[in-house]
Amino acid sequence: MGPSSNSSAQWCARLGTALLWAAMALSGADFPQAVIGNGAIRAKLYLPNPQSGYYRATRFDWSGQIPSLEFQGHSFFGQWFEKYDPKIHDAIMGPVEEFLTNGAGLGYAEAKTGESFVKIGVGALRKPAERAFQQFHTYEIADSGKWRVHTGRGFVEFTHVLGDTNGYAYVYRKTVRLAAGRPVMVLEHSLKNTGRKTIQSTVYAHNFYMLDNQPAGPDYVVRFPWNVRAMADLNGLAETRGTELVYLRELQKGESVFSALKGFGPDARDYEIRVENRKAGIGVKQTADRPIARMNFWSIRSTVCPEAFIDMRIEPGGAFTWNITYEFYTLPQHTQ
Asked: Which residues of 285-323 are buried (b: 16+ CB within 10 A; e: fewer)?
């Protein structure tokens, strides 16, 4: 007698997981990782691990690292930096996120030297004797918390639990989910405050877009649904034109563009960012269900990075949720 439909489904699921990990082993993968797909998108993710993870620095949330995402033969993320070390603050790829409280780690201002403060998605960090918080410094991790990772068809769910750290504690859940049969990826987040103190923070996605590895230059355009204004001098490398930010020439090694951007309003509908490259013939639309609190733009030759910030305030026992959606597409003249 054959197995029941339920047991068959369970057996297939176990076989699929086994084949996934076997394929990773045969590929010589050095870091914990997973591959997901939905028929339209194929994405590889590096998984958090305090001992063997690809990224072990203390700036960015360890979950949801996407070193590659492919759609219709095109790529959207990759290694934009030259030097790799797991402890380098920005040796990371994909639409990763960073949490900051008044420009520092959560609880940094009140922690004494030798005590711990928090970077959400990283853990409890030891505060050294220093004049001020250093965003790009890799701190000693006093407690990396507990990570759980669950992979299913078209999604990877990360859960990070951090116990009491000077009154701060949380359960952070992030799911990278591919919409069924569509070129859409959603980052679903929830942050529950399980500590004694209020969590007040901002979070931004540092997208590190690399559309078919094209260099930052006039083939790129970044579009918004509002008239965009750069608050800093773009030094003749880029400029804003109505609802667009454009490059005036191709950036060379060592050159960069950085500015805060203004023009958005308080409605979540203003959180709409399109990055397109006419030579590659592709684009990505990024939206969210929370309003933009602050907006930056940073770029070097190898990557284009609009950075939209979301504010949150979570009282003890409370929770905050937010979703960021990425829709990948080909430009009309390149549609097959």
From this structure: bbbbebbbbebbbbbbbbbbbbbbbbebebeeeebbebe
